[in-house]
Input
Amino acid sequence: MKIVIGILVIYASVLVLLFIFQRNLMYHPDENNYFGDKLEVNVEKVKIKTSDNIDLLGWFHKKDLKRLKTIVYFHGNAGKLENRIHKLNHFKDMDVNFLIIAWRGFSGNEGKPSEEGLYIDGNSAIMWLKNLGLSEEDIIIYGESLGTGIATEIAQNNNFAGLILETPFTSMIEAAKNFYPYIPVSLILKDKYKNNLKIKNVNIPVLVMHGETDQIVPFWMGEKIYEIANQPKYSYFTKYDDHMMEFDENLVLALKTFIKSLN
Output
């Protein structure tokens, strides 16, 4: 009996610690996998003020706001804007403008990340573009990993030009269960990001990209999101890509083809 009680006490203690520090496990603003990639596309560093008065760092690349669509890029749960340079460099050869923002608590921004807070950040980026004269039909929303949660939230029930989801998850509950199968995740998780429910409310063109060897977000989640998504929908599924997909000529071609279809 003492052994059983001891095990239960330890388990309860683990649950309490996970509940308290769960956002430290989910968001990693200080992680740096930047390998010195040089930015090859011209960007303007901008500050975007949120509705709750936080200034967000953004990089804005403007070719032609009237003629071309503008991508709003929502990055994942780790690292700085510099960690996406290898992706952003490809946009210089595409007929598109782009804005990438760093979340609160990332890239030197004030605040602490949370599901509610990141929704505010994402909507503030959209409003910033609208203040430049853009409409929803001019904007393509791009979500990477965790960023697919914000992208899907914002895209639902709205009339944006399109939605791109790179390595999307069905919900943070199911993603967390993959790592913590013996923890009652649904009871203690604060930030749930229910993509599987919200994608049903997206009625604009969707491109889902995922690799079969993803070790962080299981490939079946990307397949499920694609399955649930409404038409028109497109997929770019690869056999060997891990969570950080290879931005090779095939992936870039898939992006170019999707973007061209929206113009």
